Amino acid sequence: WFHRNCLKATGPLDTKHLTPVLTSQKAYQIVNELSQKRAQLISKMGDLLTDPKSTPVIDDYLPLIRGFVQSAEGGTSPLQELLKFRWTQSLGTCEPEVQKSAIYEVGSICVNIGLWYMKRAAKIASTNNYSEADAKDVHTCLRTAAGVFQYVLDKVAPNLDSTQLEDWHDCAVPILTAYKLECTAEAQEVTVARAIELKHKADLISALANETSKLFSDADVALRECDTDYVTKWRRYLQSKIKFYGAYARSFQGEFLLTQDKCGESIKTLQEAQKLYKEAQHLCKQYENAIGNSVGEVKPAKHPFFLKLGSVIDLRLAKSERENGFIYYQKIPEELPGLELKATFGLAAPIPFEVPPVHPIFTEEAYKDFTIQQTPGPNPEWMRLTLPCMAFLPSL
Predict the structure, then answer these.
(1) How confident is the model at residue 297 (pLDDT cuts 50, 70, 90)?
(2) From the centroid of its chain, how far is CA 391?
(3) Quick one: which of 117, 113, 4 has its CA closest to 59?
(4) Suppose 353 and one of 147, 207, 225, 316 were both cysteines; which one would form an S-S bond, judging by CB atoms 3.0 to 4.6 Å apart?
């Protein structure tokens, strides 16, 4: 079960006002190519059956828009403020924000690519015949989405005009941070499920679940900076996952402690797992009624994924109590055992993402075909990098 916010919406580029600016056929070609490739990319983003890895429109558009940010020689492009770009926010109203900034367009497009990967992952995960190949695909694309948000966070957001961004806007630091951490945590959920399926050691599963809970917690902390109801539903999702994987961690820790003949501590730990599970149930009900711009009506407390853990905890606690009554006779400690187990492998990490180099159509002569006032603008560090192609992007 994954929470998903809406894709960002945009309109076609308005290029009619550029007629006096375009002084050659080459300039017309650049603008027309940009508009066409952008429209093709936007239309593809609504198709969750499309594998972004095999979608050439991503590689077609990003080198073109990059030419409006950076010149072929690595300096600031004179076209940086030539066009206006309109985008809604994944959390907010349908009223678009308008900025005359190609850097803003790069950030917005990349955020939508990240959201596209997230939604495709949720689509695959919801199939009835969910296979091992599907799990690998979901895991890879969630890590890819995390890498996209990391890229925007590190390389684009610092170069945007923060005075034009609300704290709940998609290119704002709290939102980008939350998206990156959520994707990483959800990828790790796949790892936890795999470890359980293959019956790995209880202490390893407990450690992985604990690290997953921490990632969801970090994402929730990032959203605390957003003083708006737009994030309420999203936060309830994150908070329910914090408690859920906290319960998972305690459940497997209790099983592990029993194998170490620490039955009293096992009982105490499993009682804590029960408590966390009930708190997760309560948060799931709050999630159902919370305000938010999420997609679909979800009742997580009734999801088999959620219900199964409750019965597992009950069975393990009953076993520990039974064994303590027959064999161990240990006193149940007042202090809860610490979760000192550390996961040494199996932790998910974002897959690095880069924007392709400037399209070769942007030559020094091509820029001269635009009769505009070349005013000095920011020359951010990320635009001076020589970046590899993005063709490796895995599917989501």
Answers:
(1) low
(2) 20
(3) 113
(4) 147
- Are residues 317 and 253 in contact, defined by beta-carbon separation less than 8 angstroms? no
Q: Which amino acid is at 181?
A: L
Question: Given a cut of 50, is residue 246 above it in pLDDT?
Answer: yes
> What is the percent of the chain with per-residue pLDDT over 90, rounded to a whole number?
70
Amino acid at 91: L
Distance, in Å, from the CA atom of 49 to the CA atom of 121, rounded to the nearest integer, reads: 10
Amino acid at 73: E
Classify 345 as helix, strand or coil.
Answer: coil
Residue among 346, 393, 18, 371 at smallest CA distance from 187: 346
The amino acid present at 394, given as its one-letter code, is P
Extract the tokens encoding 14.
């308005």
H-only helix segments in 198-231: 202-223
- What per-residue string of b and e applies to 214-234 under the rule 16 or more CB within 10 Å gives b? bbbbbbbebbeebeeebbbbb
On whether the pTM is more than 0.85, the answer is yes
Strand (E) positions, the chain? 85-87, 97-99
First-to-final CA distance of the chain: 15
Strands (E), 193-241: none
Please name every residue paired with 5 in a beta bridge, in sequence order, or none if there are none. 294
CA-based diameter of the chain, in Å? Answer: 91
Query: Rounded to whole angstroms, how far apart are CA atoms 277 and 240?
Result: 9
Per-residue burial over 27-43, b if 16 or more Cβ lie within 10 Å, else e, is beebbeebbebbeebbe
* Tally of CB atoms within 10 A around 75: 13
d(CA 101, CA 8): 17
- Please give the single-letter amino acid code of residue 1: W
What's the CA gap between 40 and 335, in Å, rounded? 60
pLDDT bucket at 339, cuts 50 / 70 / 90: confident
Q: How confident is the model at residue 130 (pLDDT cuts 50, 70, 90)?
A: confident
Residue 281 has pLDDT above 90, yes or no: yes
pLDDT tens, 264-275?
Answer: 999 999 999 999
- Percent of the chain beyond pLDDT 70? 92
Average pLDDT in the 67-91 region?
Answer: 91
| Distance separating alpha carbons of residues 136 and 133, to the nearest angstrom | 5
